[in-house]
Amino acid sequence: MKWSKTPEVPIQLGNDTVTLPARAVSYKVRLSPLSHPVPVWNPSCILRYTASSHTFNSIMTLPKTYKAWQVEKAGGPLVQKELELKKPGPGQVLVKVLACGVCHSDTGMQQGHFGDVFPRVPGHEIVGDVVELGDGVTKVKNGDRVGGPWHGGHDQSCRSCQRGQFQCCDNVAINGVSQDGGYAQYVLLRAEAVVRVPSNVDPVEVAPLLCAGVTVFNGIRKMNIEQGNLVAVQGLGGLGHLAVQYANKMGYKVAALSSGASKKDFATKLGAHEYIDSSADDPVKKLTALGGAALIIATAPNPKAIAPLTAALQPGGKLLILAPVGTVEINSVDLIIGGRSVHGWPSGHALDSEEAIDFATTHGVKCMVEPFGFDKATEAVEHMLSNKVRFRGVLVVE
């Protein structure tokens, strides 16, 4: 596969010559013999020319503009725009978006919580195919299936990068925040942060693993808890339903904490060995009766529910807060007496995401998704904010 550098590309059809614009990709394929040449135009602007015992060229032109959902100012609405399609610069890849997850952090950007980054296209759970490479890119090639997660790039020179903690880079780039994201037909991604995605997985199902999935997967394994220990998951939403599955497949005994007896069957199907209904029982007493948790993963943004959980940790146990809840009041006595600790974890870099996807596909971890057509972006966000989505909304880009 190679890209034309000429202003136009000539194609010979019998005695006629047809030209197409530049930025077209050329494929060479061996065909079965046909008695007559057959030129075919299809809806995706691909011209196929078939001839007996000959090789043919297929030319796919890229548009000059593309559709994207953009936020023009802090607190402003999502507006569908027609934007100019730019060529990738050095170290960038141009990706045709297939799917993009809808995350609460997208609305944080929209409300201006990340500063004056406008106008901006949101979206950091991006899956698509590479259609053009910038200079110097060797990590991927045209046609590769890739992902664009929260972590969108790093300077590769600061202390964090030198330690391999790329997502903690002093000059970190964030897809959908500091650079345009995936609520669009096309997106430019930085090659060092691009995630290689298997082509045999559903883009819609894998998209949320680039944020929710890698966050819980990476957070759990970085806590270094021995297999067989009790791991409790507070909340059964977008993060929580994945945390239960990952923890189970990693070899832990899993307790799920949520409100309502009706969720017990669901939690059990996800892989929970114990279910604690926080509306009927005291989670601290229940977990303590089980011997205390080696790890409690807080995934639901409820600071009052999270605060007392340190008392349910076994000595040396860890409370991992993944839900962005703001201030949580923690009893320091619980930490001191039992040698307990409180942690957060910042998602992951490209390799972390690749490993989260690989683990999920190998062990059957499934993200429950609700697809929305590309033109339904505002509806998808509204469903997420009203807690109607089960459990991750995903824009399907056609």
Automatic annotation (TrEMBL):
Keywords noted in UniProt: Metal-binding, NAD, Oxidoreductase, Zinc
CDD domains recorded: CAD_like (cd08296)
SUPFAM superfamilies tied to this protein: GroES-like (SSF50129), NAD(P)-binding Rossmann-fold domains (SSF51735)
Family annotation (Pfam families): ADH_N, ADH_zinc_N
This protein's record includes keyword Amino-acid biosynthesis: no
GO molecular function terms listed in the Swiss-Prot or TrEMBL record: alcohol dehydrogenase (NAD+) activity; zinc ion binding
Residue span, Enoyl reductase (ER) domain: 76-397
One cellular-component annotation, GO: cytoplasm
Cofactor field: Zn(2+)
Similarity-based family: Belongs to the zinc-containing alcohol dehydrogenase family.
PANTHER family: ALCOHOL DEHYDROGENASE 1-RELATED (PTHR42940), ALCOHOL DEHYDROGENASE-LIKE N-TERMINAL DOMAIN-CONTAINING PROTEIN (PTHR42940:SF7)
Name of the protein: Alcohol dehydrogenase
Organism this protein belongs to: Plectosphaerella cucumerina
